[in-house]
C-alpha cells in the first residue's frame, strides 16, 4: 500500500480491535503501573471499539477521506475512552486527525509527521508524564518514523513499530515497579498492538501480524485490586467551552488523587479521568467547570475476574555461594541463584529470579549472614510489584536445609512459613574456618592460617596452623560436642573443598560412640570459605 485512504483507516481500526481482543488478557496481566488494577487491555479494547463503532455509524460523506475518517475515529475514542490508557489513545488518534485533517490520502511523509503530533497531544493529556510508559513508546515510534527518508509507506510503518518495540523493551529500566514485577509497560504494549495492526493493513495482510512484539514473557496470576492509596476511578464527559475552567478542573483533581487527565476534542467536549477517594468532590469539580454527563465510578476493590499475573502458587528461592551448595538445594526442589565464590552478590539478580518465578508467594532462604541484606532488599522491591515475598532468617546453609526439609507446598502459605522459620531457628550452626588474617577473638588472638571453630557465630576454639587433616577432625569433634551439649536429634555436615575425604566417616564414628541417638547426614558442599559447616537440630 502506497498511501492510507479512508478504507485503510477503517480496516486499521477493525484490525486493532481484533488484535486487542486477542491480547486483552495478556495486556491486563502485566498491568502494574500506575495502578495494578489489571484492566489496561480491557480499557484499550473498549476505547477502540467505541472509536470503530463511531466510524462505522458516521454518514459516508463524513468519513470518505483519510483526515475525515480519523477525525470521526478520534471523537468516538474520546467519547468512549476507558481508563487513563483509553484517554491517551484518544489523544493519539486526535493528533493523527489534526495532522491529516485536509488529507485525502496519507503518504509516508504525512504519516511520519502525524505520528509526531499524535505523541505531542498524548503527552499533553497526562498531568505528570513519566518515562517508561505508553507515552515513551509512542514518542519513540514517532522518532523512528521520522528517521525514514525513503518515502515508502511500509518502511515508515515498520520503522515506527520497530522503534516502539525497542522502547517497550526498555520500560523496565525506566520504572522500578516494572522491573520489580518483571514486566514491560502494559499501555506501551497496547500502543505497539496499534502500530502492529497498522503494519498489517499497510502490508495488505489478511490476518493480524506481530512481527515486532517483545519476546519478554508475561507473568500470570491473581491480581491485586486497585491502588493502595486511592480506592475509586471516576470518569465522565464534560461539556465546556471555557478552557480556563478545565485547567482549574485539572488542578483541583490533582489535589484529590492521581492518574489525572482532562482532555478535549477542540469543540467543547472533554473527557475527565481521576483515581481518588472523594468521588463527590471529583464530580462537583466537574460541575463547576461545565456539564458533566455519562459519569462512571468504579471501586477498585470490587473488581473481579481480572487475569492472574502469577502462574503458580508458591516457590522457595535460595541464593547460594558455590556450585556444590547450589546443586544440593536444587535437588531439594528450590530455585537457586548461584553466586560464585569470588562474586559480589547482586540484589537485582535475586530480584529477577524472584519475579521470574511467576509465583504469587515466594519464600527466600538466604543461607548466609552475608546474603540477608540483599534478600531483604529484593523482597521489599518484589512486594512493591505485587508479589508476596517472605525472607526467613538463615545464617548458614545448614539452617536453610533444615527449613527446606519441612517445606510443604500443600500447607497454607502462612503455616508453611512458620514451620520453616521454626526449623531454621531450631538448628544450631557451627563451622571450621581457616583464618585469612591476624585478629583478636573473644577467646584470644589468632594468626592467618589458624583453624577457627565457631558455634552459633562465636569463636570457641583456635588451633594454630598450619592446618592438618587430624587438626580438622579434632576441631570438628570439639565444635560438635559444644553444640550437642544441649541435645540434638539430627546432625548435618556440609563438607568444604578443603575437608579431608575421611571427615564424614570420622564424624559418624564419633557420634555413634558419644551420641548414639543422634542421626547423621553429610553432603559434599564444596564451599571454599569454610572447611566444614555443621548443623544440629
TrEMBL record:
SMART domains: Dak1_2 (SM01121), Dak2 (SM01120). It comes from the Bacteria. Residues 7-200 form the DhaL domain. InterPro entries: DegV_domain_contain, DhaL_dom, DhaL_dom_sf, FakA-like_C, FakA-like_M, YloV-like. NCBIfam families: YloV. This is DAK2 domain-containing protein. It comes from Kibdelosporangium philippinense. The lineage of its organism: Bacteria, Bacillati, Actinomycetota, Actinomycetes, Pseudonocardiales.
